[in-house]
Design brief:
Blueprint lengths: L15 H13 L5 E3 L4 H11 L3 E3 L19 E3 L4 H13 L5 E6 L2 H16 L7 E4 L7 H10 L3 E5 L2 H13 L5 E4 L6
Parallel strand pairs: 1-2, 2-3, 4-5, 4-6, 6-7
Length: 191
């Protein structure tokens, strides 16, 4: 037996409600599996479970990415990504070899908060106290104030944790503000 698969893409605009709506649309369109960033899984998990369609999260390493809004594990959600705690340990090891003054800038998503917390802990295990640690809305129209705050702190490295669009905007804002420190990102920075 031969099967032909069609790849169809949907843009969630970094919005959980849109991501969940996209999952429903994909299921309606006949999806046999959904590969996604995980931003809307807390909402979409019920629909994918009911339809028997797996959602495979590839970038969100937070502990909540595979749970519903009540914290229950959702059987249709699978993670094919590096958990934030493991990624943080590796990243902290890299950073500690060359820098002792690290700033962290993260978005307000579960992934951004979880990653920042994990990285802060991992850095502290290497005797680095990150400062400043700044949280910003994932949909903030500008990051100019935060970029200036980091520039004023003069870190030798900046760790950015959040969604891919947030990371791209953050890197652009930091460089536009004249921040020359090395920038490290979570796995979403690879997108």
């Amino acid at each position: 037996t031969t099967y032909t698969l069609k790849l169809k893409t949907y843009d969630d605009g970094n919005d959980p409600a849109t991501a969940a709506s996209n999952v429903s649309a994909a299921i309606h369109d006949g999806a046999i599996a959904i590969i996604e960033d995980g931003i809307g899984t807390a909402v979409s998990g019920a629909a994918s479970t009911a339809a028997g369609v797996p959602e495979i999260v590839i970038t969100d390493g937070s502990t909540t990415a595979l749970q519903d809004k009540n914290g229950n594990v959702v059987p249709s959600l699978f993670g094919l990504r590096i958990p934030n705690d493991a990624a943080s340990d590796v990243l902290a090891t890299y950073i500690s070899k060359s820098c002792q003054n690290v700033a962290i800038l993260h978005d307000d998503s579960d992934n951004g908060r979880d990653g920042s917390d994990a990285l802060s802990g991992s850095l502290q295990d290497t005797n680095i106290n990150p400062s400043p640690v700044i949280e910003v809305s994932a949909t903030a129209p500008t990051l100019d104030t935060q970029a200036q705050q980091i520039k004023g702190a003069n870190p030798c490295a900046v760790a950015v944790w959040g969604g891919d669009v947030f990371i791209a905007h953050t890197v652009a804002a930091l460089r536009s503000a004249g921040v020359t420190a090395t920038i490290f990102t979570s796995q979403a920075g690879e997108a």
